[in-house]
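User: Can you predict the 3D structure for this chain?
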Amino acid sequence: MPPRNALIVLLLSIASFSLGGEPLPGTQPLTAEGDLSAKMVEGIHRWLASARKEVDKDRAELWRLNTGILKSADAEGLEAKAKDRRQRVAEMIGAVDKRESGELMVQMDPTAKTVGILTGSYAAQKVIWPVFEGVHGEGLILQPAEAAKAAVIVLPDADQTPEQISGIQPGAIREAQFARQLAERGFLVIVPVLVDRRDEWSGSEKLNRFTNASHREWIHRQCFEAGRTLIGFEVQKVLAAVDALKGPSAKLLVPGAKIGVLGHGEGGLIALYAAALDPRLDVALIDDYFGAGENDDVIYRSVFGKRQWFSDGGIAAMIAPRPIGVASDDVPQIPKPPAAKNGRKGAAPGGVNTLDRDAVERAIGEADTYRKLAGAKPMEMCVVSPKAAEMRRTPEAFMAESLGIQAGAKRLASVAQFSSDTNAVDTRQRRTVRELEGFAQAILRDSERVRKWLPLWTNLKPGAEWDVAQKHARGIFCETVIGRLPGEYVPSNPRTRLIHDKEKWRGYEVMLDVQADIFAWGTLLVPKDLKAGERRPVVVCQHGLEGLPEDTITEDPAAPAWKYYKGFAAKLCERGFIVYAPHNPYRGGDNFRRIQREANPLGLSLFSFIIAQHDVTTQWLASLPFVDPERIAFYGLSYGGKTAMRVPAVLERYCLSICSGDFNEWVMKCASNTHPAGYVFSPEWEIWEWDLAHTFNYAEMALLIAPRPFMVERGHDDGVGLDEDVGHEWAKVRRGYDKLGISDRAEIEWFDGPHTINGVGTFKFLHKWLRWPEPK
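Assistant: Here is the predicted structure, written as structure tokens:
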């Protein structure tokens, strides 16, 4: 049958349908029932579980091949490869800022009840050392009377104080007082304080706004967007202490003395990364953490892309040929964040759980496999109690032998204690939190200056040079910021059913396959006045957070969704556009937010899946005989506005984009601790994207959309942001489009209203650029 006659038959078939679930001609019947939104989210979780297994296999093979190559390489090649790996890890955890040099300084605190103790073999005093501008390491130094033959940096768990792990104040059993035991053997011991898991200072006194996010999560929320992590900050504190011991404070050690690191719980995580990054640490002991990275459930341990390249075993392998020991006896368990109270809420769920013994064994086995291939000794299993089965060495005995200290040094029977001084400990913790907070905010403020020097801006003029810069930037945005789903799409196998039959249009529910366990779903609105052979433009109308496709369609003013969407999808269809209302998987509370947490270690994000769904959807739309594939537009509100910035920036199949109720100075909205609508206070804990601050704010995303038309719809009373911030970011978009000679393609409509579709200037914009006449 000739194509024209086939189209006539298709149109006649559409016109004859009654509301009975019939499919759109050319598609299979859609029979899926139940909550398709929930099924979409669960399918993505299944895909991620499978992807984790696959990436673990791929990573193991990559390491095996690389280690085999290194084994036959010369020493120079081996060190070059090791530097490359250390650089990759440093970038992944954001340990990239230049440290300040300085010495370890005994801290005399006149407000503290006691500043130090003296035993028969060592003195314990408070100590401080420089790390970054405005940031210090703090804790205790346990110092022998004479220059020590070796030093150990002992890292307590986040909820332990240096005094507790040193046996100076109650809180740790004797066998776990690692700092004290090492000091008694004659080591110089430094015990840094870590950011703890309380929430007393998680918030802003200026705004009088607070959250129950732990201090660790509070710092994470401010630094992840800027390509930093709390892990990286605390590793830098350890390495700054090494700098001091190797430099200005070298007098505390005998010449050539070795330095080790020992960490318990959260401190074990920091010790593992510190030893992997710095060969000056001659030995590492990881207590009650190793293997936890396989199934981390706390947001502040999130490392973007880590699982693609490194497991805990892979990180440990980087320490080779230096010795590393592991102990696993009493894992700190904090299954939940601090409880919501007194208006404090919004913390991400999840916590530190009991170590999976199988995961520990797998991590050790993986590390030992790599270490053996590299010619290093296996990891050593230690026990905290010397009476334990198999009589393995205790951590301090392992450290002593590895660092060349006589293993049989006599322990003291008792040690004097500091007077309990809760105020001093709390003041130190508050100072630790606020210093890192200030440093993170300074990085954020400087990020705009960094973005100004991106090729997108420095080559901003029409021509081949800018085209190349834009293509390169789009690749970075897609591959390293958002993350592209690996593998090919499966056949879309479109299934549809009729769910609306209105006076001017019909609506079909649509389901399309994307990859195994991943599908796209939405509603297609088709005008009834299509003429034979006609190809019309499409407007894709995107809902916001916790929304459904129907929310954009409903014409019932009593419906809860009406006040936000005003039935804009139906209105546009009544104006003659074909309309598609897709579902995005940001519905289901913390269940959908876990997609981001599970995807980030794979170098992916929530929008990795959304982009793939839109890619398949727009391919299908473009294939329909009544659609003009060159005129497919995007229009989204709220989280749909976030989609309007990201998806068209990647998918050039969208011919224009309208961002409603979301356009912002996005970086500061996400991570500023003084933004009145900032996400650092909100329950939307999935919102941050790795190092977006130094790569793509909303102006840069708009430049990825250029030269296609781009519009912003902004209500003065929209609480998602401030007009001043929107104007600040819009000015950069305006400049970009002006410099490219396409000023008429960028518009903003300010209206006196709240967080809602206004549908005045935006509708005119759609008619203009989709070349479709406005109704009379």
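The mean pLDDT is 90. The chain has 24 helices and 22 strands.
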